[in-house]
Amino acid sequence: MSGKSVYNLLQDNVSKPRFCKSLSTGETWSSKSMYSLFVVNSSDSWFYIMKRIIPEEFVRSAPGAFEHRVVFSVRWGNSWQLWLQRGKNGLFMEEEDWDEFVSDNFLGPNDVLLFIHVDTMFIEVQIYKQDSYHLKEITSAPLQADPQAEVVTPLPQTSPPETPAPARASTSGARQADALVNNPEQYLSNPSNPFFVKKLGKKIDVLYVSHLVTERYGLQFGPHNSPMFYILPNEKIEANTKIYGGCACFNGWAAICRKYKLKQGDAVVCELERSGGVVTAVRLHFPNE
To answer: TF-B3 domain location, by residue (predicted)?
Structure first.
C-alpha cells in the first residue's frame, strides 16, 4: 500500500477503532524520550503527551477490552505482549515492553504506526514509512532482524523450496534458541511434540503462547477456562487455559516459577502435549538444573 496519508489511514474501514502515532522533530520512539511538552492557549497548563499512552477514546470504544495487557501483531505474523498500567494521564504501556517492540521493529523517526482494534486485548499494528506527504506500508520483517515474541526452533523442512523459512529471533528481547538452550530437542519426552523455549521476564502471571508458535505448529486450544496441566519431573499441576483476543495462555505460571525458584532471564523448554489435537498439557523442562 502506498500513497496514503495519515488522514486516509484513520478513515479507512472506520468500523474498526484505530489511532495513529508518529514523532515530532527531534523525538525518538524510545521511552526515554517519550515525553513532549506543550503549552495550551498560552496558559500555565502543561500537558505531558506520552507515546506509550493508549488514547482514552480508543479505550472507550471497546469497554473492558484493555484492562491489564494487550497483544500487538504485525503483518508478517509476529506478536508481542505488552502490560498496561493506569496512571493519572490514562492507560499506558509499560516501558520495558514498549521498548522491546520498538527495538525489535527498528522504528525510526520517519515511521508512522497505525493501531487497529481487532479483538479483546488484540491490536494489529501497521508500520508505515513516511516519504514527504505519503506513506508506504511495511509488510515484511525489518532487514536487520526478524523479531518474534517467543523462541521457536524450526521444524525439519517439509515445505516446497519457494516457501520462506520460519522467522528467526532478534537479539533484542527474543534470542535464538541455541543462545538460550543448547539443543532444546534433547529435553523432549516425545521428539514429535511441538515446543518453544520460554525466557522469563518480569511478568510471570501466565505462560503465554505467541501467535508465531501457534501458527507454526497449527495449535488448537480448549475454550476459555478449560482445564489443562503442567507436567513437572515429580508432579502434575492442574491449571486453566485462558483465551484473550484469540491468544492462548495458561494460568498458574507464577506459582510454578516461585516454587521452582525460577528468576528473570531463566529459560524453560515448554513441550506441548495434545489430546484429540487440542493442547491439554505443558511438560516443563529446566535445562539449568
So the answer is: 37-131
Helices (H), ranges, 132-277: 177-180, 211-217, 253-259
Residue 91 near residue 59, CB atoms below 8 Å: yes
Helix (H) or strand (E) holding 134: strand 134-138
Residues 6+ apart with CB under 8 A from 256: 230, 232, 237, 262, 284
Q: pTM here?
A: 0.51
> Helix or strand or coil: residue 212?
helix
Q: What is the pLDDT of residues 229-263, one digit of tens each?
A: 999 999 999 999 998 767 788 999 999 999 999 99
Cβ density class 169-194: b for 16+ within 10 Å, e for less: bbebbbbebeebbeebeebeeeeeeb
Of 44-48, 54-58, 108-112, 206-210, the poorest mean pLDDT is in 44-48
